[in-house]
Amino acid sequence: MTSVTCTAPVNIAVIKYWGKRDTQLILPTNDSLSVTLSQDILHSKTSISANKEYAHDRLWLNGKEEDITKNKRMHNCFRETRALRRRMEDEDSSLVPLSTYPLHVCSENNFPTAAGLASSASGLAALVFTLAKLFNLPNSMTDLSRIARQGSGSACRSLFGGFVAWEMGSEADGSDSRAVQIAPDTHWPELEALVCVVSDAKKGTSSTSGMQQTIESSPLMKERLQIVPGRMEAMKKAILNKDFQAFAELTMRDSNQFHSVCLDTFPPIFYLNDTSRGIIQLIHEYNAANGGVYKAAYTYDAGPNAVIYASKEDMKEIIQLIAHYFPPSEEKKSTYFTDPYNVLQSKDSLGA
Ligand code: DP6
Question: Where is the Mvd1 C-terminal domain (predicted)?
Fold first, then answer.
C-alpha cells in the first residue's frame, strides 16, 4: 500500500472570481486574484492510500463517508492525475501501476466547515496536490492548478502561497486557464488577515449555482467584466509596491461590486447580513477617523463572514474595535472558538 498526506491552505480573493464561460471545464469569465492565508490557521488535510486490494475508490470527508460516485468534480481530478501517471507507467514498465489501483481518500478541515469559510478551495487543492505526490508526478504547480481548477475554480489559487492570480485564459480546452504566483508569502509580511465568523449557517445559494444565475440574469455583470481587467493590473501593481492604500480601496470596491452583481441577479442573491453590513460601515468610519487614510479593508465571499486586511501594527486595535461593536454571543463563545472575539486571527503573516 502507498499512502501520502498533505495539507493545503485557504485563499481569500481580493479580485473575485464570479461566473463561468464553461461549466464543465470550469473556465471563468474574468481573471481573479487572492491572498493565501497561513496554513497554521486554516487548512484542509488529505490522506490518500492506493491499494490493489481495495474494491473501489472511497471518500471520507470530516470523518463521514461520502458517495464518491456522486462527486463529479473530484472524479475530474482523479481522471486527470491518473492519466498523467498512466503516461509515466507506459514509458517506464518498472513503475508500480498505481494508476490502476483503487484509492481511499480521507480529508478534513482544521476549521469548522459550517463556518462557511472557503473549504472547497483548500479541500480540492489538497486533493490534487496529494494525488500528485502519491503518483510522483513531475508536473509544476501551474500544471496542477489546471487540474485543481476542474475540482473547484478557486482551488487552483490555493496551490501557491502568497499573492496568486488565476488567469482566465482564452483557449477552449482550458490549457491556459491556470494560477500563477504574483508574489511569495514573504513579500509583504506586515500584511495580516482577520477572519470574523459572523454566521455559521450554511449559505442558501452555493457559489456554483449563484454565479451561473448572475451570468444568466444580471445586466450589471457585463459592466463588471469591462472593469475587472483594469482592476487586476492595478491590484498587481499595489501588491508589488506594497501599496496598502491602493490595495485596500481595490479590495473593498471589488467586494462591493461582487455583492452588487449578486443583488442585480434575478431573483437576487443575498450573502451579506446586517452584521456584515455593520462591519463595512465600521471599517469606513474607522478609516475616515484616520483622516481618510485606509487602515483596514474588508472583503466578503459568498457568505456573511468578513475578512479584514490590515497591517500587523493596526490589527490589535481593529480586533478591539470589532469585539466592542460586535461582541460574540454566549452561545458562539461556547460552541466555537476559544478565542474570546469569535474571530480567527491570522497568526503572524500571510502565506502558505
Ligand atoms: C465568491 O470556487 O467555490 O469565493 O468553481 O463553482 O467551485 P466553483 O466555485 P468556487 O467560487 C468561489 C467564489 C468566491 C470568489 C473567489 O474565491 O474568487
Answer: 193-352
